[in-house]
Amino acid sequence: MKGLLEFLGLDVIVPPPTTKKTLSLGMQHGPEFACLPLKINIGNLIEARELGADTFIMAGGVGPCRFGLYAQLEKEILEDLGYKYECLVLEPPDKGIWQFIKRVKKVIGPVSWWKVIQGIRFAYHKTCLVDSLEKIVQEIRPREHAKGTADKIFNYSLHTIDQAKSMAELEEAYGLAKQKLLHIPRDETKEVLKIAIVGEIYTLLEPFASLEIEKKLGYLGAHVTRSIYLSGWINEHLFRGLFAPRHNREFVACAAPYLNHFVGGHGQESIGAGVAFSRQGYEGVVQIAPFTCMPEIVAHTIFSRVSEDNDIPVMTVYVDEQSGQEGINTRLEAYIDLLCQKRKAHAV
Amino acid sequence: MSYKVGIPRALLYYQFSTLWRTFFHCLGAETVVSGDTNKLVLDLGTAKIVDEACLPVKIFFGHALRLARENLDYLFVPRMVSIEKKAFICPKTMGLPDMLEASKTPLPPLIKPTMNLVSSQRKIDAFLWETGHFFTADIRKIKRAWREALEQQQKEELQGYYRLWGKNGYNPDAAATRIEREDKLVILLLGHSYLLQDNFLNLNLLEKLKRADCHVITPEQIPSELQEDEVKDLPKRFFWTYGRILMGSARCFSKIPENKGVIILTSFGCGIDSFVDNMVMRYLHKAGIPYLNIILDEHTGEAGVDTRIEAFLDMIRWRRQMDEGNFSSYGPYMGNNERTVGISGAGCDCTPANN
Known about the structure:
Chain A is an alpha/beta fold. Chain A contains 16 helices and six strands. In chain A, helix 4 links the parallel strand 1 (55-59) and strand 2.
């Protein structure tokens, strides 16, 4: 997103990385039962405002998940706090990306359509490359000799990819990062568990919100795959499947007979992904969701049946303002132990 | 032989009791509704569902499981996706039959039709057939039953409106004069119908308010056209029916010129209310109307709620006395702490903030 807007000549301020301070700002001003992403969002916006941002861009929605009203509620909260913000809401299903581009154009003035299209392609390409790097990292994490090497390289290359201003630079940065990752010394013979992470998109994509569960599982010796990657999401929701076949259709099909109707958010996809991954031979499913997330509660309830039918252990983690690490570490360790035992029992 | 159909007394049953009962009656089926909610029902439900689910859904499970023990032919668990255009009920009501089936208890066969009017009213036919084909293969008979049921339901809803507005149209001033004759405190009780009508869940709040000499108005007494009218000019339309009901009722209520307060009932963990209530409270705050937000959960101790309601009512009464006895001799707008008469401004100092 940042890539696109900068390409179009806007001055973009990305909120500083989410920290505890962000969260506490959000908690202070957001409604108590609201889900975690909203609170972090409010915190992000306040911090960005302090850096001088005057317009915020957000996706919208038509329900029934609460996300569709985020922008409106945030605007109201910020206004009551005395922050003046313009807000630019990208409303998906009905209008899609064109509506959004029209609005962006209104803000930035005359830009040729050609440039807009190029900008979108560039930004989308960027996210695709980052995602493919991340998949490599997920594979390396449990196997590398010196823990944390892959993550260090990944973080550094995020920066270089972000700096790239043209396709050529982008490809170069990507190639370099990939080479570095593939040269990390690792133990190829090690037995690794395969775990799928499913759940609500924000908690899946933002490591701070999920207490870095993905990384932790990786270090504990599991090859982790997520049900949602950013590029996939953009492809499905903004481009309506223009560039690649839509992935979530498969997941939705797998959700029957457990959950036969769309329940908003990613509830149905979570169930479907759980079933699909277990059929692909994954050994465990971890569901992550923000506390009080409505679609994921529905999914959680149904997971007990999925788990029994497919013989796959499912662990559900709700994340909230609680940021203590040890509790979650213990749970993850216990879960990994359980999976290892199960594997041994099968082997005998 | 007539079929026996069980209907759990929970969630949307409270809104559509007449509709469902008449419909099944006309189809020639006997309906069995579970009894009032009590501690046993709650415990039964809580044991069978994940902790994070909200209280009304837990109670729904309790009622459904209780009915499952009786000798029924069917259990009616509709999948209520949407009852009007471009608005949903809630993700949990959309997944209800699936959640119930995942509960690992023996259940009678479920009738689980999907009511989804979000894009078109015509989808109602599918709903009718999914429900009716268990009893008859004659689609005309089903439709006749539905028309009859709708008629009864509308009659009942009208009765609700008459109680507030009288029979001569919806005029806020006229409604106010009618209420004024009683000389009572006017309280708008906001909440979802299954909270307002379940006396176990809301700790008998309606009765308590009546005993405290209050005239209680509920969203059921405010016609949906009026509510819709009030929320039309919001920056973004609510895509939840209950959002429209709560916000619309609050805005409509603020037009009735009377001394008043608003009590908002929320169930713990309600996803929709976390947003809607916050917006309603911000609106009331700006309009200078005192409000009290009560969050209901599994606690059954009443004393805490009693104290809070008493304090809230006392506060409104004091405000009224202050407004009456504190007229500036220079006219209502001067030297009176920026207060106007009747609807007091600057409500923030009396309003319990953010609870």
